[in-house]
Amino acid sequence: MVNLLIADDHPFYMQGLTLSVSDADINVLEHISDVHSIIEAYKRLKPDVFLCDIKFGQEQTSGLDVLEKLLTIDPKAKVILLSQYDQDMMIKQSYAAGAKAFLSKSIAREDLINAIQTVAKGELYFTPENALILARLTYDKAPDERPLEEILNEKEIEVMRLLTNGSREKDAAAELDVTVRTIAKLKASIKEKLNVDSDSSLIKLALKHGLISMDD
């Protein structure tokens, strides 16, 4: 029997997951919808496998942040990260951060069960698609060596230019006639695609690619 802890801010999705694995010798210990309650629940329940969403609504804390904290508490934690989006850099970041598997929320039931059982044994689990993505990223040039146009779309490049040139999110939103929430989402997407986790790293890339200059 594999004892599983699930964290996701969509109750219906968690219920669906529970039903999907109910007859597969997998016991769901608890559902956690509040990202700030995860660490305490993990310590209390000590699951064999922890299934965690990457995005929790508008929370700044992500599944990757939770994974980092968990591994300082329990270096042997067996964590599977879930995402609604199959972004290449997010997949790479998940495995690099210590996740045992990265799964799309649209994964087939049989593959989900296989992933949980594989990770419970302490092994990494790769879908064929993720394995190909990771192999390609291994041989691809790093983001700072590739043209931005190969990585970001036109709107993302414009948002990157504005934000790295001193504009606040609300100023960029006003200039592009979109909401602040849209700018925040685009900024997060830009960081994921460029594999950076700080504003200073984003500015360095903008300078290197000539998107902004020291004179701006």
Summarize the structure.
With 216 residues, the protein is of the alpha/beta class. The chain contains ten helices and five strands. The protein folds into two domains: 2-139, Rossmann fold, CATH 3.40.50; 143-208, Orthogonal Bundle (Arc Repressor Mutant, subunit A).
Structure description:
This protein has 216 residues and is α/β, with parallel strands linked by helices. It is 50% helix and 12% strand. Strand 3 (49-53), helix 3 and strand 4 form a beta-alpha-beta unit. The termini are far apart. 29% of the residues are buried.
**CATH class call of the largest domain:** Alpha Beta
What is the total tally of β strands?
Answer: 5
Name of the CATH superfamily of the largest domain: Response regulator
Molecular shape: elongated
* Main sheet makeup: 5 strands, parallel
Please name the CATH architecture of the largest domain. Answer: 3-Layer(aba) Sandwich
Number of helices: 10
What topology, given as strand order, has the largest sheet?
Answer: 2-1-3-4-5
Overall average residue pLDDT: 88
